[in-house]
TrEMBL record, chain A:
The protein's name: Uncharacterized protein
Top-level taxon of origin: Bacteria
Organism from which the protein derives: Pseudozobellia thermophila
UniProtKB/TrEMBL annotation, chain B:
Keyword RNA-binding tagged: no
Important for catalysis (site feature) positions: D155
Record-stated family: Belongs to the Glu/Leu/Phe/Val dehydrogenases family.
GO molecular function, one term: glutamate dehydrogenase (NAD+) activity
Positions that bind NAD(+): T203, N234
Chain positions recorded as substrate binding sites: K79, K103, S363
Organism placement in taxonomy: Bacteria, Pseudomonadati, Bacteroidota, Flavobacteriia, Flavobacteriales
PANTHER family (UniProt xref): GLUTAMATE DEHYDROGENASE (PTHR11606), GLUTAMATE DEHYDROGENASE 1, MITOCHONDRIAL (PTHR11606:SF13)
Protein name listed in UniProt: Glutamate dehydrogenase
Length: 67, 430
């Protein structure tokens, strides 16, 4: 595959099958971007403001207070 | 071979900076910007590069490179995202920092522009390592960031969790009496850790609002108007959600997995639920038929919301566009040639710098709440966002009319004139 030196597509999980653009060599922001880590390493990058929910935020807050 | 590769990398980064500079120069020429102020705005104020060691899970130490570029702070503290990606370097940070200066200025926020991040591929690190990397980077940045100096926010590969780590680390470096006065050192925090209600939908709601303001101004009723959306992430979904509530009909959506179409309407809620359950892909949604990707922008509709990535509307597909309004939810979705074609055809374009500014305005509200010890309800946040965006939209429309320029040029003129005014009034030290 063509090297994507200056593009966030280089680490996007959709890079192989993405139908949005063929010019993947200079993308610096994309709402569809999902880092491959989401598949590989678990929850870190699946944690969004939306998906985390009130309970998650509360737990996180408690951890911060304890620290 | 190595030299060739480096040259290509540099060209790409230069391209990004050139785009930002071209838009700046265009507006600066029109307003005949004071040459001395042009000199100031053409360069960044501060550029910080930090190398910091972090112990990995296997006991070995790795040294990382982090960046923070602070372009301009004549209107207030620097503001901009932190991204974790292999492409992060000083040139990319410069271009994106400059872009933030124009954006915050246009939105009449008391902020300047900044950008930064760490050059790494998060895939290679565990969550514990990423936490240590984030905390060590925050420590390395030290007092180069601060709630009244430079306020980072999430960007590519960083999120509410990353901001919570930065906040916790930054606060830990302060004396106990000062700690709680530093909550606003970052925005985009989890709600329980000082984040704001409504921050998740702020950009998409902003896109919707600018469309609504445009419709009011043109005396167009949004009810039954057909719209299509490229990108069904946070921005695309929330913009669709609010447009649908206004009576408009979502007829087509395109994302990384493909394009779908239903002339009778696609339910944004149902599509969002399907996408969430389907690895964030819309392809295969039963409420619509699949569509050739190349046919997407040429669909018969009234409004196009490109909310995915840059350079999507080009000279190649601009001629086929039937919509009369393009609302740029993404950054730079319309290229220069396409814009010329569209403007000649009489298509209105709500420029990205205005259209997607709801996000940074939402960040400002989070910062204000932390700074004043307040917690606003969702409806309060949304009402304030509407007021702020209305102000920006009206000034762009008025400037476009008075100067006989398109909305994008008008937006840049306003942003640059506001900075110029600050320098003229304050003078230059000493």
């Amino acid at each position: 595959m063509k090297k994507l030196y200056g593009s966030i597509c280089s680490t996007c999980k959709y890079v192989a099958g993405c139908t949005l653009t063929r010019a993947k060599d200079r993308v610096c922001s994309c709402s569809e971007y999902v880092h491959r880590l989401q598949q590989d390493n678990g929850p870190m990058f699946t944690l969004t403001l939306q998906s985390m929910g009130e309970k998650g935020f509360r737990n996180l807050h408690e951890e911060l207070v304890l620290n | 071979m190595i030299a060739k590769t480096q040259k290509k990398k540099n060209n790409l980064k230069q391209g990004m900076l050139n785009n930002v500079m071209r838009q700046f120069d265009n507006a600066a020429d029109i307003i005949d910007l004071n040459p001395n102020i042009r000199k100031i705005l053409e360069v960044t104020n501060n550029e910080l590069v930090v190398h910091f060691p972090v112990r990995m899970d296997n006991g070995e130490v790795e040294v990382f490179t982090g960046y923070r570029v602070q372009h301009n702070n004549s209107l207030g503290p620097y503001k901009g995202g932190l991204r974790y990606h292999p492409t992060v370097d000083i040139d990319a940070a410069r271009a994106l920092a400059m872009w933030m200066t124009w954006k915050t200025s246009l939105a009449r926020l008391p902020y300047g522009g900044a950008k930064g991040g760490i050059q790494l591929d998060p895939k290679k690190y565990s969550q514990a390592e990423l936490e240590r990397i984030t905390r060590r980077f925050t420590y390395a940045l030290g007092d180069n960031i601060g709630p009244e100096l430079d306020i980072p926010a999430p960007d590519v590969n960083t999120n509410a969790q990353t901001m919570a780590w930065i906040l916790d680390t930054y606060m830990s470096t302060k004396s106990p009496t000062e700690r709680s006065t530093n909550m606003h050192v970052v925005t985009g925090k989890p709600i329980g850790a000082g984040g704001s209600e409504g921050r998740d939908r702020a950009t998409g709601y902003g896109v919707f609002l600018t469309i609504k303001f445009w419709a009011e101004q043109k005396k167009v009723d949004l009810k039954d108007k057909k719209f299509i959306v490229q990108g069904f992430g946070n921005v695309g979904y929330w913009a669709s959600h609010f447009l649908e509530k206004e009576g408009a009909i979502l007829t087509a959506v395109q994302d990384a997995s493909g394009s779908i179409y239903n002339e009778n309407g696609i339910s944004a809620e149902q599509l969002w639920a399907y996408s969430e359950a389907n690895n964030r892909n819309i392809n295969g949604f039963s409420g619509a038929n699949s569509l050739e990707n190349g046919d997407f922008f040429g669909l018969d509709c009234d409004i196009i919301v490109p909310a995915a990535l840059g350079n999507q509307i080009t000279a190649k597909n601009a001629k086929k566009i039937k919509a009369y309004l393009i609302a740029e939810g993404a950054n730079g979705p319309t290229d220069v040639e396409a814009e010329e074609i569209l403007l000649k055809k009489g298509v209105d374009i709500i420029p990205d710098i205005l259209c997607n500014s709801g996000g940074v305005i939402g960040s400002y509200f989070e910062w204000l709440q932390n700074r004043n010890g307040e917690i606003w309800q969702l409806d309060e946040v949304m009402a304030k966002l509407e007021k702020k965006l209305k102000e920006s939209f009206t000034s762009v429309v008025d400037t476009a009319k008075n100067r006989n320029v398109d909305m994008r040029t008008a937006a840049f003129i306003i942003a640059i004139e506001r900075l110029e005014q600050a320098y003229v009034q304050r003078g230059i030290f000493p």
